[in-house]
Amino acid sequence: QVQLVESGGGLVQPGGSLRLSCAASGYIFGISTRAWYRQAPGKQRELVARITSSGSTNYADSVKGRFTISRDNAKNTMYLQMNNLKPEDTAVYYCNVVRDSSWDYWGQGTQVTVSS
């Protein structure tokens, strides 16, 4: 199995920045997709950003130009750099890993609150 632990969430004012981290352990070979999702109260979970094993990325339209997904293979860690945060970014953020194009793993989630 793959274990994922998120960190870096917190309270930030509009226009501020946060960097979320997701540390992976366990059987981490054959990772095909790494992604960040978020879920706001009363709303469905949505894909925020995705990165493939080759480094290709894609983003939700709502975060393009503000968020950046990346990975550090030496640390077995993925990141979500969030800049120019808006109140509508408030949500619980989850990291997600797909191994061998079929096995799905999730972190426990970290709260991001954007408020004055």
What would your notes on this structure say?
By secondary structure, the chain is mostly beta strands. The protein is about 0% helix and about 60% strand. It has no helices and eleven strands. It has strands spanning about 1-5, 10, 20-25, 30-40, 45-50, 55-60, 65-70, 75-80, 90-100, 105, 110-115. Strands 2, 4, 5, 6, 9, 10 and 11 form a seven-stranded mixed sheet that branches. A four-stranded antiparallel sheet has the order 1-3-8-7, with no helix packed on it. The protein is globular, with a radius of gyration of 13 Å.
SSE topology string:
EEEEEEEEEEE
How big is the Rg?
A: 13 Å
Largest sheet: 7 strands, mixed
| Helicity level | under 10%
Number of helices: 0
Structural class: mainly beta
Residue ranges: pLDDT <50 for 5 or more in a row? none
Shape descriptor: globular
Mean pLDDT: 94
End-to-end Cα distance, whole Å, is 40 Å
Strand content: over 45%
Please report the total strand number as a whole number. Answer: 11
Describe the structure in brief.
Helices cover 0% and strands 58% of the residues. By secondary structure, it is mainly β. The strands form two sheets. Strands 2, 4, 5, 6, 9, 10 and 11 form a seven-stranded mixed beta sheet that branches. Strands 1-3-8-7 form a four-stranded antiparallel beta sheet, with no helix packed on it.
